[in-house]
Amino acid sequence: MPFTVSNSCSISPTLVPERAPSAYAEPVSTPPAPSSSPPAQSVPYAADLELATGLADRADAISMARFLASDLRVETKPDLTPVTEADRAVEEELRRAIRLARPADIVVGEEFGGIDDSGLPAGRVWIIDPIDGTKNYVRGVPVWATLIALIEDGEPVVGLVSAPALGRRWWAAPEQGAWTQTHLRGHAAPPRQIHVSAVADLSDASFSYSDRVGWQHRTETGLDDLISIAWRTRAYSDFYSYMLLAEGAVDVAAEPELSAWDIAALIPIITQAGGTVTGFDGGPALTADGAYASNSLLHPAVTELLRS
């Protein structure tokens, strides 16, 4: 569906349906599970996960409409990272939709803020990264995603990652596990539950990290040691490293520089899949400025290297 972007990059509400048609199945209220599972109304955060799915549908429609566009408008932010009209348009639309659906909730996003020096607000907070992987988006690389998270009293409880150019989506919430679904060439595969790997030795592990930028403030020696010990090292980019970890395709992932919107949606998916994610300071990943994740079995060994 076409959409228009004004000078302020806002979406014309007349061109965005209240609920954009989804390419994905409706897995959120009660994901596929044995018949002994509780009824949908008793599943924690089912309604919030359903809302997140609707938000992702809206985001996908906006971001895909401008992906690979020859006239895509790109600016440079003060931190020298790029931002596009699509980043801003997605966040504006999701903020509008959340205000309508959950007027008492707080919204925090990468492009329009919501966090001050005191940190995340208390209560229910939605955290949005409209396009995680903007550099990829700008260059036509399909590895980018919209990240949507619900935080309750500082704890990430709902996470959804939608990567429409890859035809992939991942989601998780308490007592529902972690799930993914693929939609390619008009065909939607059934949702499937995912779990981390059972690799128990770093010498057998696949390790993914972004690049060396930022590691000079960490332990470059630890990074080099991990690279040399691991069976395989690749850079799968931003959110994708952590989703591959949740699926069991990668065993360790690390990012030396993160903001809350980079990691919030990933945490429930990783943990519900059986993984562990930790800040470099040893505290919660959500409030850390860098984090690493593993299949849990490898976490003590990774911690010893990266925090030595």
Structural class: alpha+beta
Could you tell me the mean pLDDT? 84
Q: CATH fold name of the largest domain, please?
A: Fructose-1,6-Bisphosphatase, Chain A, domain 1
- Computed CA radius of gyration, to the nearest angstrom: 19 Å
Q: How many DSSP helices?
A: 8
Verbal overview:
There is one protein chain. The chain is of the alpha+beta class. It has two domains: 13-191, Fructose-1,6-Bisphosphatase, subunit A, domain 1 (Fructose-1,6-Bisphosphatase, Chain A, domain 1, 2-Layer Sandwich), CATH 3.30.540.10; 202-306, D-Maltodextrin-Binding Protein, domain 2 (3-Layer(aba) Sandwich), CATH 3.40.190. The protein is 27% helix and 24% strand. The protein has helices spanning 46-66, 85-101, 134-139, 220-229, 238-247, 260-263, 266-272, 299-306; strands at 74-76, 82-84, 106-109, 124-132, 145-152, 155-163, 168-173, 177-184, 187-188, 192-193, 206-209, 232-234, 252-255, 276-279, 291-294. The strands form three sheets. Strands 3, 4, 5, 6, 7, 8, 9 and 10 form an eight-stranded mixed beta sheet that branches. A five-stranded mixed beta sheet has the order 12-11-13-15-14, covered by helices on one side. The longest helix is centred in the N-terminal third of the chain and has 21 residues, at 46-66. Residues 1-22 and 24-40 have low confidence and may be disordered.
